[in-house]
């Protein structure tokens, strides 16, 4: 069953200009943060979005749980079109969709005891009274490994380590037993030796609640560990999607290949580098045709003229490239 | 065997804070050979930066070197006067930091910053310095017209290249690079690392690469030094650290990190790193160590040589 389906989703942010700049150019400019992307997340599966900084991962995550309003496209969550749903219509769905942020410090109320922070959603949604909510929060503390729960309940966020704070953020997101979560770089600010336990905790809840997850990361090693499917984004577009193993063993888009050949690894096989020229382009005026073309070592004239569509190469492997690297592993 | 460039012996660097004394680097000994890249790895707060900055005596006011020696090319840097150590910085030891924006002057063109550094240390004409600055930029893959840019006009990767140009312009013997690519995307990181490796070959310098990313160190460095809670626990050639880690902490670290090319079971290291104002007695890793015995809580193990270029600090091997 499809939990979330997104089609042709777009979000442009107006560029903030200084007074002088506004006098000089009358034309309004936009950052094309998300520029027509489509994907499906199946029930109980982890779908990862990877790509470099600024490619539109967070914006996508915020759009699908409607913390951000799309410009165009369609978002269907559990068969309900929520693309332009009003806050009132969204409220009952908010219980089922949660988001976990990168910075567990910023996402917790610094003056609230962590136990109350975890219990709060139950009260806000009118699911439990104060006493029941506290009971549930204690159970949840136990569940995320913050024990003894009674002791942790009373602590404030600053009294916890980064890893422990992320556990609190996860507990708060999970207390409503959601069906779907967006996890936006949930371990990138956490120490290496503690990352694993946080990822394992997320996987535990995935199994427990049959969760579907949109997992956002710039770390391909983490994506490989946690996801069923990986989608690679470049400048607001999805350039390649496939099952995790397929994408890593058989990347077809030059950008995916460049990414994979740049990731440090303890156990790399032979290193076959794809070197991209220059640097990532400006999302305000992205290149014509394929957005990678000015940097791509395989580009031909069609690449600057025609935008490649995301098409299937079998095995549920989709690539948007005029000259995909077929069978070159 | 190549000759020793840097030799650190029983170094202790403590921070005197209102929470008490933070023993950030405690009894660390380490040697770096010429033309060698050493990866200094360990989790946040393990003392990597403190060790790196202590080498050139660039510590914040609360930080103090309370013991040990640091010998660079026969000179004990701890005995130099303030004026002498200032000459060592830049000229003999170049520094590259994680965030170039905080170390580049935002109001000065990058060319002027390069020229200033060169004039400060070398007895050359302005014209000569300009030429050297342009060359330094070309070395790091930036067109010389970038001399006229201000730092904010450059991308993160380009700024890091400028930092590297600054650090290498005077052809130092040693470069200390503190998380030089942590703020960058992997593709840019890879190119910056290519650059550092090629400069190492060309200039015949040694590099201390400080990073929390053991995979990065394993791929790029010749040797890896593993720090935990202010102690150096293992020091060995990179390949051996990966294929045959000896210290239980190193083993745990390698088992705990996911890898993009290998599907493997990952295991976490239980527990949390200690507070260095109040570190555990004996071996500082003992509360998290699966092999800890009674002795580990009581006595700090010495670091011992257990084979060619292999050092480990653990009672299992002593
Ligand atoms: N509220 C906003 N207003 C204006 N521009 C925005 C806003 N949010 C994001 N952007 C821009 O949209 C683009 C995509 O940003 P987004 O945060 O989605 O990227 P990301 O892939 O999550 O990057 P990172 O890996 O750095 O988190 C960027 O160019 C960013 O500057
Ligand atoms: N200025 C300071 N005053 C007090 N304590 C400090 C200071 N700087 C660092 N410390 C402490 O010294 C210890 C080592 O810090 P250091 O910055 O060297 O670690 P690190 O390994 O570089 O960590 P990171 O990966 O986070 O950069 C930590 O416990 C830290 O809290
Ligand atoms: Mg983001
Ligand atoms: Mg540091």
Write the layout of secondary structure elements.
The complex is a heterodimer of chains A (329) and B (318).
Chain A lengths: L1 E13 L4 H6 L5 E13 L3 E5 L6 H8 L7 E6 L2 E2 L5 H8 L2 E4 L13 H11 L5 H14 L5 H5 L8 H13 L5 E5 L7 H18 L2 E5 L3 H7 L2 E6 L2 E7 H6 L4 H9 L38 H5 L5 E2 L5 E2 L10
Parallel strand pairs in A: 3-8, 3-9, 6-7, 7-8
Antiparallel strand pairs in A: 1-2, 1-4, 4-5, 9-10, 10-12, 11-12
Helix pairs in contact in A: 4-5, 4-7, 5-7, 7-8
Chain B lengths: L3 E14 L2 E14 L3 E5 L6 H8 L7 E10 L2 E2 L5 H10 L1 E4 L3 H4 L6 H12 L4 H14 L16 H13 L5 E5 L7 H18 L2 E6 L2 H7 L2 E6 L2 E7 H6 L4 H9 L37 H5 L5 E2 L5 E2 L6
Parallel strand pairs in B: 3-8, 3-9, 6-7, 7-8
Antiparallel strand pairs in B: 1-2, 1-4, 4-5, 9-10, 10-12, 11-12
Helix pairs in contact in B: 4-5, 5-6, 6-7
One magnesium ion binds next to helix 2 of chain A.
Largest interface: A-B, 38 and 37 residues
Are there runs of chain A of 5+ residues with pLDDT below 50, and where?
none
Average pLDDT figure of chain B: 92
> What is the top-level CATH class of chain A?
Alpha Beta
**Main beta-sheet annotation of chain A:** 8 strands, mixed
Query: Treating each run of at least 4 consecutive H or I residues as one helix, how many helices of chain A?
Result: 12
CATH architecture of the largest domain in chain B: 3-Layer(aba) Sandwich
End-to-end Cα distance of chain A, whole Å, is 31 Å
CATH superfamily of the largest domain in chain B: P-loop containing nucleotide triphosphate hydrolases
Strand content of chain B: 15-25%
- Remind me, CATH topology of the largest domain in chain B? Rossmann fold
Number of domain modules of chain B: 2
CATH class of the largest domain in chain B: Alpha Beta
- Helices and strands of chain B, in order, run as EEEHEEHEHHHHEHEHEEHHHEE
Helical content band of chain B: 25-40%
Global morphology of chain A: globular
Terminal Cα separation of chain B, in Å?
Answer: 26 Å
The largest sheet of chain B has its strands arranged as 6-7-8-3-9-10-12-11
């Amino acid at each position: 069953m499809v939990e979330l389906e997104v089609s042709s989703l777009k979000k442009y942010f107006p560029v903030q200009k200084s007074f002088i700049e506004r006098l000089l150019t009358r034309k309004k400019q936009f950052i094309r943060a998300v520029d027509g992307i489509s994907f499906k997340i199946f029930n109980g599966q982890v779908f990862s979005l990877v790509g470099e900084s600024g490619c539109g991962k967070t914006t996508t995550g915020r759009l699908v749980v409607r913390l951000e309003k799309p410009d165009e496209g369609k978002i269907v969550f559990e068969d309900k079109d929520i693309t332009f749903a009003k806050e009132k219509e969204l409220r009952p769905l908010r219980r089922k969709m949660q988001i976990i942020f990168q910075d567990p410090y910023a996402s917790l109320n610094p003056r609230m005891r962590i136990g109350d922070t975890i219990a709060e959603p139950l009260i806000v949604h009118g699911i439990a009274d104060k006493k029941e909510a506290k009971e549930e929060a204690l159970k949840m503390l136990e569940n995320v490994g913050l024990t003894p729960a009674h002791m942790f309940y009373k602590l404030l966020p600053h009294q916890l380590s980064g890893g422990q704070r992320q556990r609190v953020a996860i507990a708060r997101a999970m207390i409503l037993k959601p069906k779907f979560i967006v996890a936006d770089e949930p371990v990138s600010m956490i120490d290496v030796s503690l990352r694993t336990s946080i990822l394992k905790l997320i996987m535990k809840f995935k199994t427990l609640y049959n969760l579907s997850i949109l997992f956002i990361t710039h770390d391909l090693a983490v994506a490989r560990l946690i996801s069923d499917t990986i989608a690679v984004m470049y400048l607001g577009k999805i350039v390649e999607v496939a099952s995790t193993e397929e994408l890593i063993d058989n990347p077809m888009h030059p950008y995916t290949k460049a990414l994979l050949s740049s990731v440090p690894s303890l156990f790399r096989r032979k290193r076959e580098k794809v070197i991209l020229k220059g640097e990532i382009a400006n999302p305000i005026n992205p290149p014509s045709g394929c957005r990678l073309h000015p940097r791509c070592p395989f580009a031909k004239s069609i690449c600057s003229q025609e935008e490649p569509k995301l098409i299937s190469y079998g095995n549920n492997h989709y690539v948007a490239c005029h000259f995909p690297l077929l069978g070159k592993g | 065997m190549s000759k020793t460039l840097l030799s650190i012996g029983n170094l202790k660097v403590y921070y005197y804070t209102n929470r008490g004394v933070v023993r950030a680097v405690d009894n660390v000994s380490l040697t770096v050979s010429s033309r060698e890249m050493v990866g200094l790895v360990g989790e946040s707060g393990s003392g990597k930066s403190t060790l790196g900055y202590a080498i050139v005596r660039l510590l914040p006011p609360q930080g103090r070197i309370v013991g040990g020696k640091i010998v660079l090319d026969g000179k004990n840097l701890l005995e130099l006067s303030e004026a002498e150590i200032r000459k060592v910085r830049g000229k003999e030891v170049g520094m590259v930091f994680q965030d170039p924006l905080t170390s580049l002057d935002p109001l000065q063109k990058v060319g002027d910053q390069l020229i200033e550094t060169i004039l400060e240390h070398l007895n050359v004409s302005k014209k000569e310095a300009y030429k050297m600055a342009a060359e330094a930029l070309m070395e790091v893959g930036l067109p010389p017209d970038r001399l006229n840019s201000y730092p904010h006009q450059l991308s993160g990767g380009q700024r890091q290249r400028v930092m590297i140009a600054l650090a290498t312009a005077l052809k130092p013997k040693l470069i200390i690079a503190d998380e030089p690519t942590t703020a960058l995307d992997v593709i840019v990181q890879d190119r910056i690392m290519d650059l550092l490796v090629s400069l190492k070959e060309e200039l015949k310098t040694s590099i201390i690469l400080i990073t929390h990313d053991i995979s990065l160190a394993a791929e790029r460095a010749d040797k890896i030094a593993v720090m935990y809670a202010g102690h150096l626990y293992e020091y060995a050639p990179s390949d051996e650290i990966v294929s045959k880690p000896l210290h239980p902490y190193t083993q745990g670290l390698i088992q705990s990190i996911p890898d993009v090319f290998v599907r493997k079971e990952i295991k976490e290291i239980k527990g949390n790193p200690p507070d260095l104002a109040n570190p555990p007695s004996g071996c500082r890793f003992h509360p998290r160590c699966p092999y800890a015995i009674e002795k580990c809580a009581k006595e700090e193990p010495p670091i011992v040589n257990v084979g060619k270029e292999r050092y480990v600090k653990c009672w299992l091997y002593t």
